[in-house]
Amino acid sequence: MSTSETRPGRRTRRRVLSTLAVLLVLAAAAYVVLHGRGKHPAAAGCTVLVDDSTLVLSQAQAANAATIAAVAAARRLPERAVAVALATAMQESRLDNLDHGDRDSLGLFQQRPSQGWGTAAQILDPVYSSTAFYKSLVKIHGYQDLPLTVAAQKVQRSGYPEAYAQHEEDATLLAAALVGGKGGALSCTTGADREDSAGGAPGSTAAVTAKLTREFGAQVRPAAAGTPAVSVTVPTGAAAGAVARGWQLAQWSVAHAPDLRVAEVWFDGMRWRAAHSEEGWRKASVEDAEKAGSTDSRLVRITVAQ
After folding, report:
1. Spatial separation of the C-alpha atoms in residues 129 and 133, rounded to whole Å
2. Which pTM was predicted?
3. DSSP designation for 144
4. Which pLDDT belongs to residue 199?
């Protein structure tokens, strides 16, 4: 057989092999899409859902926002104060604790050492900067009744006084969730896989207790539970507003889960688990609650990773 007679056959075989190779690649890609979803952790981040409105935040933004709300709780300030503070931080820093800014502006609220807000180190502490903001806010007579952008501007004295208004809707939504008025409204995904749900070294109940006490003040009295101590329980009290206070503490714990190495949070018959964080808050069975020692609905139980 001549060479010219074999070429068509070779070309046909090459086309068949190329087609098979493409089909194999497509099949492999389809397998990854269909079977690999459960093997990769969801991206880290937090979602706030109140009624039909949704707000998406990074973990750092959610943690900073939760701290701003906690400091307001320590000072017994109303939800409106939290909304004003959150809108201000959204405008000034996008809720990120910035180590830079215009001239010497720093932190969540872009406060300036040269204008008497404190030292650079103090301003970069979210608890200090939030406290400083609220101290200035409460000096404004009738701030709760002022338009949000006016109240914020009286504190900040910004060159763009109307800028805060654009964040009012999101800040109001976030404040409603973080003060506990909407139970389970804030949930976060950790971005870690289920074998290492919190990622890194074991957690510490001492660290959780110290941070709770520093941010919420004397209103909370956390206590270590378990032997060895792997959980912190926080009584919500029996007074009016106890459920909202409990949800504020519970959602604060979830927002700070990565830096505190929180593995689980229990409250009011609901549970959030870092290992299944993509599921959000879920109703806990009676058996699971009894096993975890979380049957008392007046307690927030925060368990750290081991």
Report:
1. 6
2. 0.83
3. G
4. 53
> Rounded to an integer, what distance in angstroms lies between the CA atom of residue 210 and that of residue 222?
9
> What type of residue is 255?
A
Q: What is the CA radius of gyration of the chain?
A: 26
Each as own residue / partner, the long-range contacts of residues 138-142 (CB below 8 Å, 24 or more positions apart, any chain) are 138/75, 138/77, 138/81
Contacting residues for 286 by C-beta, under 8 A, at least 6 apart? 295
Answer whether 81's CB lies under 8 Å from 137's CB: yes
Give residue 293's identity as a one-letter amino acid code.
Answer: G
The 10s digit of each residue's pLDDT in 257-305 is 999 999 999 999 999 999 999 999 999 888 888 877 777 878 899 999 9
Query: Which stretches of the chain score pLDDT less than 50?
Result: 1-8, 10, 12-13, 16-17, 19, 21-41, 194-195
Determine contact, residues 22/171, Cβ cutoff 8 Å: no
- Are 83 and 168 a contacting pair, CB within 8 Å? yes
The H or E element spanning position 223 is: strand 223-225
Q: H or E stretch including 224? A: strand 223-225
Query: Tens digit of pLDDT for each residue in 52-71?
Result: 999 999 999 999 999 999 99
The residue length of the chain stands at 306
DSSP-based three-state secondary structure for 293: coil
CA 300/CA 234 separation, integer angstroms: 5
Rounded to whole angstroms, the Cα distance separating 90 from 87 reads 5
Q: What's the CA gap between 170 and 147, in Å, rounded?
A: 15
- The pLDDT of residue 296 is 81
